């Protein structure tokens, strides 16, 4: 008998959550979202995403991860079998500027979520990050590599989630899967991320900030590919696993900017700056483990993905 999935998805008003919850809904799983709509970036974008979800019959509860009672009661009432936990305080820079907010949502919030899962015997699939690789120099980054040298507090909180999940799996036999996302981009994306800031600045004729003089490489992963990985991880429902979800292509920042320029048909005015605190020079995902266990196969090229983002950006901001 196929188990009926009732998926409680945190961070549903956020970028990745908004896309992931629709994928589960479309294929017939029962879903409900949970989000506090915080003001880290324009809450109007979060509200607009949730309006889109409402149109197709998806409900998003307004609540905070730090409210354990509410989490417990909402998850119980929904009859949750799986929790896809994507709510967090993202951003390397933000974790340096506002460390307490980062620890509150990412560590206290995580323990609350895993506690609620334990009480309901629900499987947990949660967002980790390529940031856990920190100062690891060996590329591509494999799940076997060192992750005890984070370069930022944000990376440290994501590593803390992974070790916390391991301990719960060991003690209570819980099913936990951590997904290390690599620079996810696409329509309805996050306004604090470089691709969004670059697009906005180039369109407005403003200069863009290019850190480390452009000598950086990132593994940019299109949202639909990441969502495929999340869905596959829910279906696998592994005992205790960690997977990289990256595009397996590390691209120079300069090439990335060129792709945006070509798509917009407009050159960027570049302001070259030194490396920012907390940043790493390169990210690059080894995806052999995800390929083997999740059938993960990224399909969208950077040119195609950026075109889709810019099409959305123009229509959203008219
Ligand atoms: N986008 C990326 O490139 C990327 C890369 C690596 C990891 N991640 C992780 O993936 C997850 C989703 O990221 P995203 O890009 O969609 O970010 P996002 O900020 O768009 O979404 C996160 C959502 O969580 C909500 N939230 C934050 N703190 C909360 C709290 N205390 N209680 C309830 N809701 C809260 C926010 O309101 C937001 O809507 C995060 O865990 C993030 O750390 C993202």
Descriptive overview:
The protein is an alpha/beta fold. The chain has a domain at 6-182 and 223-248 and 283-298: 3-Layer(aba) Sandwich (Rossmann fold). It has helices at 15-26, 43-55, 68-78, 92-97, 99-120, 153-172, 194-204, 223-236, 253-264, 288-294, 302-317; strands at 6-10, 30-35, 60-62, 82-85, 123-129, 176-181, 184-185, 207-210, 217-218, 221-222, 240-245, 251-252, 269-272. It has a 7-stranded parallel β-sheet with strand order 3-2-1-4-5-6-11, sandwiched between helices. It has a two-stranded parallel sheet with strand order 7-10. β2 (30-35), α2 and β3 (60-62) form a beta-alpha-beta unit. α1 crosses α8 (223-236), α5 packs parallel to α6 (153-172) and α7 crosses α9 (253-264). The structure holds nicotinamide-adenine-dinucleotide. The site of nicotinamide-adenine-dinucleotide (NAD) has 27 residues, from α1, α5 and β5. Residues 11, 13-17, 35-38, 46, 64-66, 86-90, 105, 109, 127, 129, 181, 183-184, 190 line the site of nicotinamide-adenine-dinucleotide.
Largest sheet: 7 strands, parallel
Q: Kindly state the percentage of residues in helix.
A: 40-55%
Side by side, the strands of the main sheet go 3-2-1-4-5-6-11
What is the name of the CATH superfamily of the domain at 6-182 and 223-248 and 283-298?
NAD(P)-binding Rossmann-like Domain
**Chemical compounds bound to the protein:** nicotinamide-adenine-dinucleotide
CATH topology title of the domain at 6-182 and 223-248 and 283-298: Rossmann fold
Mean pLDDT: 97
CATH class of the domain at 6-182 and 223-248 and 283-298 reads Alpha Beta
Give the low-pLDDT segments.
none
Number of helices: 11
Q: So what's the overall shape?
A: globular
């Amino acid at each position: 008998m196929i188990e009926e999935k009732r998926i409680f998805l945190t961070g549903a008003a956020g970028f990745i959550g908004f896309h992931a919850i629709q994928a589960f809904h479309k294929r017939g799983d029962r879903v409900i979202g949970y989000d506090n709509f915080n003001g880290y970036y324009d809450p109007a974008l979060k509200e607009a995403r949730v309006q889109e979800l409402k149109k197709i019959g998806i409900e998003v509860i307004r609540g905070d991860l730090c409210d354990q009672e509410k989490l417990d009661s909402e998850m119980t009432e929904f009859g949750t079998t799986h929790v896809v936990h994507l709510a967090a305080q993202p951003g390397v820079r933000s974790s340096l500027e506002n460390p307490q907010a980062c620890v509150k949502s990412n560590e206290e919030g995580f323990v609350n979520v895993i506690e609620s899962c334990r009480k309901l015997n629900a499987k947990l699939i949660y967002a980790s990050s390529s940031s856990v690789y920190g100062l690891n120099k060996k590329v591509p980054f494999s799940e076997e590599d060192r992750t005890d040298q984070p370069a930022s507090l944000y990376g440290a909180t994501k590593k803390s989630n992974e070790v916390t999940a391991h301990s719960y799996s060991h003690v209570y036999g819980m099913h936990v899967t951590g997904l290390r996302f690599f620079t996810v981009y696409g329509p309805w994306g996050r306004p604090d991320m470089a691709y969004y800031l670059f697009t906005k600045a180039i369109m407005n004729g403003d200069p863009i900030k290019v850190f480390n003089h452009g000598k950086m490489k990132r593994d940019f992963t299109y949202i639909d590919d990441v969502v495929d990985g999340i869905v596959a991880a829910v279906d696998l429902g592994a005992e205790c696993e960690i997977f990289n979800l990256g595009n397996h292509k590390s691209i120079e920042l300069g090439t990335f900017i060129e792709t945006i320029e070509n798509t917009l048909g407009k050159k960027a005015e570049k302001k070259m700056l030194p490396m920012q605190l907390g940043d790493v020079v390169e990210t690059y995902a080894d995806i052999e483990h995800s390929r083997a266990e999740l059938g993960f196969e990224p399909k969208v090229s950077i040119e195609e993905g950026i075109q889709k983002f810019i099409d959305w950006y123009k229509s959203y901001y008219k």
